[in-house]
Amino acid sequence: MAAQDAAVDSVRDREIGVEQVHLDQVYRRLEEKIHEAEFLVNDAAQRGQVGTPGALAERDAQVFRAGIHLSRLNNEFEDFLFGRIDLLYGKDGKKGPDGAYTSVEPAEDAVRDDGTRQYADIGETLHIGRIGVLDADYSPLVIDWRAPAAAPFYRSTPVDPGRVVRRRVIRSKGRKVLGVEDDLMRPEMKASLNGQELPVIGDGALMAALGQARSHTMRDIVSSIQAEQDLVIRAPAASVTEVSGGPGTGKTAVALHRAAYLLYQDRRRYAGGILIVSPTPLLVAYTEGVLPSLGEEGQVAIRAVGSLVDGAEATAYDEPAVARVKGSSRMLKVLRKAVRGALDIPPPGAPAPRTAEDGGQLAFGEEDGPQVPAGTPDRLRVVAFGRRLELEADELHRIKQNALGGTAPVNLLRPRARRLLLDALWAKSGAATRERDPELAAELRSSFDDDITTEDSFVAFLDAWWPELTPRRVLAAMADEKRLGRWARRVLNPGEARRLARSLRREGLSVHDVALLDELRTLLGAPARPRKRREADPLDQLTGLEELMPQREESQRERAERLAQERTEYAHVIVDEAQDLTPMQWRMVGRRGKHATWTVVGDPAQSSWSDPDEAAEARDEALGTRPRRRFTLTVNYRNPAEIAQLAAKVLALAMPGTESPKAVRSTGVEPRFVTTNNEHSVTTNNEHSVTTNTEHSVTTNTEHSVTTDDERSVTANRQRGSGRGSVVRDGDLAAAVREEAERLLRQVDGTVGVVVAMNRRGQAAGWLAGLGERVVALGSLEAKGLEYDATVVVSPAEIADESPAGLRVLYVALTRATQQLTVISGRRDDPDADGVPDLLRD
Ligand SMILES: Nc1ncnc2c1ncn2[C@@H]1O[C@H](COP(=O)(O)OP(=O)(O)OP(=O)(O)O)[C@@H](O)[C@H]1O
């Protein structure tokens, strides 16, 4: 046996050596390419500005491209070279631009069959890596993973192997090859390479990849993309690509790899930018390293849905009842009323109300005039052609209504309102009848208008009577309950309007407020301002080296950031966790991709939005009539079967009839159930605060009461349950969570996530204080898309009861672990003798 192991080891070492030789050759070639690019850049800089402007521009553009190439080559890639395929001879002898043979099918005589066994010679070997590298003679040293020639690396299966005989995943660090793992696509075949039998090492790369410990950042899956995923990644970019699949099927990973693929396929087209919309900043932080690891950084903006509007960085969540209102398309009607109504609200810092009797030219409304809030001017007095002219409240009201007719953006109607005011004053002046000659009459009118519009008092009146509105100002105006009640009449019920107004009085923006701001921005229109110069394409700007230098100094990341800030529309929009976008958020995202192609990935069973039909309607509106291509991912790469089976029980409750994805592996470790029975006072206080307060006070009250109660509740515990995985526990919820987190930190090498109901977020962070960076506490809605080696799900019933979509949110929480899961019951869970809470029983 020992001799056999030693033989395997020596074959493995030999094969590692073979790949090392190839990797060394690749790095030598890369260095040559880097020198070439550096030479080009320096040479151009030294030559200064000679030649015609056209030639200079062309040269500078070349240098610019060389600079980008250089920065890609210099990128410190881990696993620069990660794959290899050994292929049969192809049908024809044609080669593609990457130097590889293009034929997908084997040549007719590629396989010999002696009646007992098949034999073949390997006709072509390709190495696959993060970017393509050609040798000096144009033979392919590395094929870019996105090139057509690399597709068989991902697509080939034993059922449909194509030309592939052996697929190898190569693991390396820096310039050193560490290991190889092979999969045989034609296990029945005796294949030889250069006269030697083709060796096969290891049990396949996928399992090795899945078993690795998780960190707080996502890894790319470029070396182990599976066939059904590859179909999505390489789907043609036309129109809309829709991808659905259960938890852990690789939707996020596929979306990110697709962005890299699209850029590779058509860099010029996607210079218009790719936007990836993510549900939370946590998921943005988790995923944002993947694209740089694939050699792509510029041109892709990953944004959380709460950070899509420039300047807003919302992370707070509204309580479910408020979120439901803010996300609903009913808000559109309310906002339409609000933008028109907000005209009558004096701008911050407006002069104190005065009356006509004060003798001012500006007259402001009586304090309690009907429908006219204090501070809105209700009389205009001006002097023109030596005459005093006046417009009274009812005339002003008529003019305003007239100007507001239709649905045009309110800020853009100001010039029209101004014109109507002047018309009314002109009519009053009687000057119209004074001059019959049309040309002279026009002149007279023009000097009349000049007379009035240059008067400070008229300008001040207009500013107060038709103020320039900003989205934030309108949102702030909606925080007034009475006012909002008026604007929301017959759209929201009084309770909804009250809660909405109250939530808008809170400091800072919530995630749902951002979509409202964006809608308001559209309804208001940008105020007329002096035009900004068009932001030119970087290549347009390259007319000389001075301009080139600052360009080169800007890093890829900075450039991406800058472009993202400036961009309001994108060439391709990728929506991750699309099931969570509310109708108002779909409208916001839709505006950014009016002319884009789309990739939309999601899982309805994980939706935290309460009204899926309403959201589907808004999604259809955003995507328009573009044709859709649908894909479904079916394999769960994250959860072991033991965890997936438990989660399936909640899925059956949350969305009866929905099929779970198939878990690809099993660990033999069953989920663990922990009960506590001493948190009565905690829960009581918590319940109280939920019903009475806004989110801010929920957190405060809860945190406060838990600390106090925890201190009191150390004794008087009842033992509950024993048996399968259950632990009889003698402490309160806080202690149970902490102890379990500590235990799991000892069990796994990577991360531990503790998922609690949203209103326990603050407390849970306190429970885990001092346990280090490997463990994090997160609210149920924040767990979306993330994964950990082990998770603790605290009080399933609390999570499920939080909102109408609570069971689906619980399903998300239960599907975050790659290795181990512990469920800790709270008071509402009603655990059985095994500690299994009622929601998770058969
Ligand atoms: N082909 C693959 N090779 C290796 N790992 C993979 C593969 N596909 C997916 N994974 C891993 O499985 C995990 C789940 O992937 P991902 O987060 O993309 O799934 P998801 O469908 O977006 O899940 P969720 O719906 O729960 O957010 C990740 O760790 C990912 O790296």
TrEMBL record:
Region (Disordered) location: 344-377, 529-557, 602-622, 682-727
Entry annotated with the keyword Coiled coil: no
What InterPro entries is this protein classified in?
A: DNA_helicase_UvrD/REP, P-loop_NTPase, UvrD-like_ATP-bd, UvrD-like_helicase_C
UniProt-annotated binding residues for ATP: 245-252
Establish whether keyword ATP-binding is in the entry: yes
The record, for Pfam families, names: UvrD-helicase, UvrD_C_2
Q: Which keywords belong to this entry?
A: ATP-binding, Helicase, Hydrolase, Nucleotide-binding
Locate the UvrD-like helicase ATP-binding domain: which residues? 224-640
Renumbered to this chain, the Low complexity biased-composition regions fall at 688-705
- Designated name of the protein: AAA family ATPase
Tell me the lineage of the source organism. Answer: Bacteria, Bacillati, Actinomycetota, Actinomycetes, Kitasatosporales
